[in-house]
Specification:
232 residues; two-stranded antiparallel ribbon
């Protein structure tokens, strides 16, 4: 119904009914939001409990209580670039074998490390290695099938044997090791030395030289550089 000016009269029963219906729909929609929120919270709790139950075989492995339910704390430290420091702090508190996630265990014991990584040790690579394959066939590092890995590894056995590495790369590696020690000594005499930093830079330069035939020269720079020219 319209008034004399041609405008709708909100006192009309029809219009009032439409307004009431719209308001009722709005209120009903808002009432659903808390229900959805509670549903998400409930699902998260149930899923967390299920994950803890699914990997209950690891319940005897020491570690923080939340590690049996979620990876979130570990992922936070990965994103912040402090995973190694976080895991090391857990080793200091709980021992050489610790649980850092629902399905993940970290081992710092030398004997245990050797048993896990030795050829034919019976420990297979986890599905995580599938995530680093950039299409096509996996490389030697990401290859999970032990039979295929053994066949592929034999092709590199001679070139990467201890005698071949010592003969072809021994002098280069020794030079980098001496440089790393010299930089550590210089820092220690000045203020303090970050040994982890220098060993990491040395390892990166050595691997780069072996893989690409040219070092990243991070030891000389004393820091992690941007994308090296040999990678562009």
């Amino acid at each position: 119904m319209s008034n004399r000016d041609g405008r709708d009269d909100i006192s009309s029963p029809l219009i009032a009914s439409e307004i009431a219906g719209t308001w009722h729909s709005l209120v009903s929609s808002m009432a659903i939001i808390p229900l959805l929120f509670m549903s998400v919270i409930g699902y998260t709790i149930l899923r967390t409990l299920y994950v803890g139950f699914l990997y209950r075989s690891l319940s005897s492995v020491p570690g923080p209580w939340y590690s049996r339910f979620t990876h979130l704390v570990l992922k936070f430290h990965i994103i912040s670039g402090r995973r190694i420091h976080y895991v090391d702090s857990l080793h200091q508190k709980y021992g050489s074998v610790i649980r850092i996630g629902p399905d993940e265990v970290a081992v710092s014991d030398l004997e245990g490390f050797s048993n896990i990584h030795k050829i034919g040790g019976g420990f297979l690579k986890s599905p995580w290695y599938d995530t680093i394959i950039q299409g096509g066939e996996p490389g030697l590092f990401a290859l999970r099938d032990p039979i295929l890995h053994a066949a592929r590894r034999r092709l590199f056995a001679q070139a990467f044997s201890n005698s071949a590495l010592q003969r072809n790369w021994g002098q280069e590696i020794q030079q980098k090791a001496r440089l790393a020690v010299a930089r550590i000594k210089a820092d220690a005499l000045a203020t303090e030395a970050d040994i982890l930093k220098w060993w990491t830079l040395m390892a990166t330069d050595v691997v780069a030289h072996l893989a690409f035939g040219e070092s990243f020269n991070m030891l000389e720079l004393g820091k992690v550089r941007g994308t090296p020219t040999i990678m562009t």
